[in-house]
């Protein structure tokens, strides 16, 4: 899933404020989407991109100026999970300072 809710939404709103008016104002970020190892390579790359794009859209709707976020997907290329707990850790979006 690429949905954003609960604690994740609260944390992302704080990140948007930080990059808009806080200590990181004017900086850019790179979002990297990941998937667990279940599913084919193409599916997982698309899912990772969908996750990264979902976070980027949420950040923009939360006040981060458009154009300051880039996205990419690593799909399942760095996945290490072998059970539900590990697969859950593999399903993520990482944030990196781009400047």
Task: Walk me through the structure.
The chain has helices spanning 6-20, 41-61, 84-90; strands spanning 29-34, 69-75, 93-97. By secondary structure, it is of the alpha+beta class. A 3-stranded mixed β-sheet has the order 2-1-3, covered by helices on one side. The mean pLDDT is 95.
Quick synopsis:
The chain is α+β, with helices and mostly antiparallel strands and 99 residues long. The chain has helices at residues 6-20, 41-61, 84-90; strands spanning 29-34, 69-75, 93-97. A three-stranded mixed beta sheet has the order 2-1-3, with helices on one face.
SSE layout:
Blueprint: H1 6-20, E1 29-34, H2 41-61, E2 69-75, H3 84-90, E3 93-97
Parallel strand pairs: 1-2
Antiparallel strand pairs: 1-3
Helix pairs in contact: 1-2
Extended strand count = 3
First-last Cα distance: 29 Å
Strand residue percentage: 15-25%
Shape: elongated
Share in helix: 40-55%
Major β-sheet profile: 3 strands, mixed
Indicate the radius of gyration in whole angstroms: 14 Å
**Given the structure, what is the number of helices?**
3
Helix/strand order? HEHEHE
Spatial ordering of strands, largest sheet: 2-1-3
Low-confidence stretches: none
Which keywords apply here?
99 residues; alpha+beta; 3-stranded mixed β-sheet; 3 strands; 43% helix
């Amino acid at each position: 899933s690429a949905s954003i809710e609960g604690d994740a939404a609260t944390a992302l709103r704080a990140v948007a404020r930080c990059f808009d008016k806080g200590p990181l104002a004017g900086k850019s970020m790179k979002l990297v989407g990941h998937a667990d190892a279940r599913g084919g390579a193409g599916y997982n790359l698309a899912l990772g991109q969908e996750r990264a794009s979902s976070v980027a859209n949420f950040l923009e709707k939360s006040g981060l100026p458009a154009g300051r976020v880039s996205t990419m997907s690593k799909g399942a290329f760095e996945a290490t999970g072998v059970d539900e707990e590990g697969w859950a850790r593999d399903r993520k979006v990482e944030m990196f300072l781009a400047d």
